[in-house]
Amino acid sequence: MADRYAVIGNPIEHSKSPLIHQAFALQTGQEIEYGRILAPLDAFAETLVSLANNGFKGVNITVPFKLQAYQLAKRLTERAQDAGAVNTLLLDGTDITGDNTDGIGLVRDIEHNLGCDFSGKRVLLIGAGGAAEGVLHPVLERQPELLIIANRSLDKALKMVKKVEERGDFRYVSVNAYAFDDLHGQSFDIVINATSTGLSDTALPLPHDIFADGALAYDMMYGRETPFMLFAHHHGAGRVADGLGMLIEQAAEAFYLWRGVRPQTAPVIAQLRP
Fold first, then answer.
1. I need a surface site. Which of 104, 216, 235, 266 has the fewest CB within 10 A?
2. Known catalytic membership, residue 66
3. What is the spatial distance between Cα 35 and Cα 19, in angstroms, rounded to a whole number?
């Protein structure tokens, strides 16, 4: 019998994860079954326990259950601890290990697929919620010259900076928190939108000169041109990208954790790119 995996979320019908993992399995010759699981908002833990008891080997976690998955895991990888959230679970009966592959997915997409190196660059991370937390440490590990976290609520951005400072691993990177008004007169080589403004078609209050020459504007959302991407096209970004590559790269890392085989992502990105 093929090993079983799934993605859990609410809503979940839009998820491309089954298509991605089926493509990985076909490419690598792995026999797996992968489905979508709609968990009631008040019954994520029961849903997870049921899957574990029924022999599932792993699950991906999407909105809004990443924090609950973090709390339910019996063991957490360093990446999960850094992110404070879990998007990948390895199941061995009721023995649950939580990991977070979002950050490495973002970094691999930007560096390998888009050919943009973080090292020595000025980076702006917009947002201070779970999506930003999930990618913060992997970005810092790439040793940018400067990382600014900008958020409507400056307090949340300051808390992220404080956590970085307390950890002490990234003394070689200048990390600061800004309100949006503080961004005037600043320009960046890589600008990452980790907010959910694309869902509501809300424009971010960014200065028109925020993009340095040849800058990459990257929105972690995918599947449509967001207001941030449109703004970047009109205000000098050298390249504009959505988060489809990140989605596929984080899935590839989860597939590797589960199966011990690393799939090629470029063919799957090409397959799913409209």
1. 266
2. yes
3. 9
Tens digit of pLDDT for each residue in 228-246?
999 999 999 999 999 999 9
175 beta partners: 147
Which candidate in 57, 66, 156, 162 is catalytic? 66
Q: Is 133 helix (H, G, I), strand (E, B) or coil?
A: helix
- For residues 198-215, average pLDDT: 94
Confidence check: pLDDT of 223 > 90 = no
Say how many C-beta atoms besides its own lie within 10 A of residue 269's C-beta: 17
Tokens 């040849």, residue? 214
Q: Indicate yes or no: pTM above 0.85.
A: yes
CA-CA distance, 244 to 207, in Å (whole number)? 26
| Consecutive H or E run containing 73 | none
> Which amino acid is it at 161?
V
User: Which pLDDT value is given to residue 274?
Assistant: 79
Contacts 24+ apart (CB under 8 A), 22-27: 23/263, 23/267, 23/268, 23/271, 24/251, 24/252, 24/255, 24/263, 24/268, 27/263, 27/264, 27/267, 27/268
* Burial 146-174, CB ≥16 within 10 A → b, else e: bbbbbbeebebbbbbbeebeeeeebeebe
CA–CA gap between residue 4 and residue 181 (Å, rounded): 49
Nearest-angstrom CA–CA distance, 118 and 197: 24
Cβ–Cβ under 8 Å, residues 75 and 97? yes
